Amino acid sequence: MLGIGALPSVFLAIGVLAMPESPRWLVMQGRLGDAKKVLDKTSDSLEESILRLADIKEAAGLPENCHDDIVSVTNQNCGEGVWKELLINPTPTVRHILIAGVGVHFFQQASGIDAVVMYSPRIFEKAGIRGEHDKLLATIAVGFSKTIFTLVATFFVDRMGRRVLLLTSCGGLIVSLLGLAVGLVIVDHYDDREVMWAVGLCVTMAISCVAFFSIGMGPIAWVYSSEIFPLRLRAQGCSMGVAVNRFTSGVVLMTFISLYKAITLGGAFFFYAGIAIVSWVFFYTLLPETQGRTLEDMEGLFGTYSKWRYSRL
C-alpha cells in the first residue's frame, strides 16, 4: 500500500525530463539560442517571443543587440549580495515583494487548513459522527472536494486574476471556519442527536473550508510567489517563501491538539478564523494583481503599497 505512493513520483520524474529549461536561467548561463527556442515554443507569437527575450536580456544585464547563440556572461554574482539585498538593505520595492512573497505562504498555512484536512476524522468524531464508515465517507468527501476545486482554480486563475481568487477564497474560508466553529460549539454543549443540523453544519463547513481554500489560497500562493521576485533574487526569494510555508504548516499540525484541548475544538477554529481575517486584510492591502505581467514588470508594480490599487485592480 505504501509503495503505491511512489508511482506519482515516478511519473513526475519522467515528466520533468521532458520539460525545457527556464529561458531566464538559460540567458543567465549565456545560452541565448536555447532561450529563444524555448520562448518561441511557449509564446503566442514570434513578436511576443522577441519582446520577452529582450526584457530578459535587459534584466540579466546583456545588451539588446546581442544576438549570438552563446555569449559570455561575466556579471553573474552567483548569489553574492542577494541575501544582503533581500534582508539587510532592501529597496522599498524589494521589501514589498519580500513581504508579499513570504506573507502569502505564511497566511496560506496559518489559517489552519492542514488542521482541517489532517485531523478531519477527529473533527467529525467531535461533531457527533461515531461510525467508522461514516467518518471515512466524510473524510473522503473532504479529499474529493480539495481535488475538484483545485482543478476549478486552474481554469479561472488566468481569467479572473490572482488577486480576485485570493480574496474570494480567503473570504469563503473565513465564513466556513466560523461556521465550523459555531457548529462544534453547539454540538459540544448539546446532545448531537438533538442538534443533528449542527452535525450537518460541521460536515458541510469542513468540506467548504477545503473547497474555498483550493480555489485560491492553495494554488495561488505558489503561483504568486514564483512570479513576483526579480530575476536576480528569484531563487533565494522563492526558497524563503517555501521554507516559511513548510515551517508554518509544521507548527499548525504539531500544536493543533494542544490548542483545541486548551480552548476547545470550536475555539481553535475561531482562532484560525481570526487569522484568516488578518490574511484577507493582508491580501487586500499588499498584494497587487500580477495577471498578464511578466517577471520583468514586477519591480515597477511593487513598492508603492497603494498606488497600484487605484490604477489596476
Automatic annotation (TrEMBL):
Membrane topology: Multi-pass membrane protein
One Pfam family recorded for the sequence: Sugar_tr
Residue spans crossing the bilayer: 136-157, 164-186, 198-224, 244-263, 269-287
Source organism: Buddleja alternifolia
Protein's name according to its UniProt entry: Major facilitator superfamily (MFS) profile domain-containing protein
Keywords: Membrane, Signal, Transmembrane, Transmembrane helix, Transport
Single GO MF annotation: transmembrane transporter activity
Predominant location: membrane
Keyword flag Metal-binding: no
Compartments reported by the entry: Membrane
Signal peptide: 1-18
A GO cellular-component term linked to this record: membrane
Domain spans labelled Major facilitator superfamily (MFS) profile: 1-291
SUPFAM superfamilies registered for this protein in UniProt: MFS general substrate transporter (SSF103473)
Family: Belongs to the major facilitator superfamily. Phosphate:H(+) symporter (TC 2.A.1.9) family.
Origin organism lineage: Eukaryota, Viridiplantae, Streptophyta, Embryophyta, Tracheophyta
InterPro entries with a match to the protein in the record: MFS_dom, MFS_sugar_transport-like, MFS_trans_sf, Myo-inositol_Transporter, Sugar/inositol_transpt
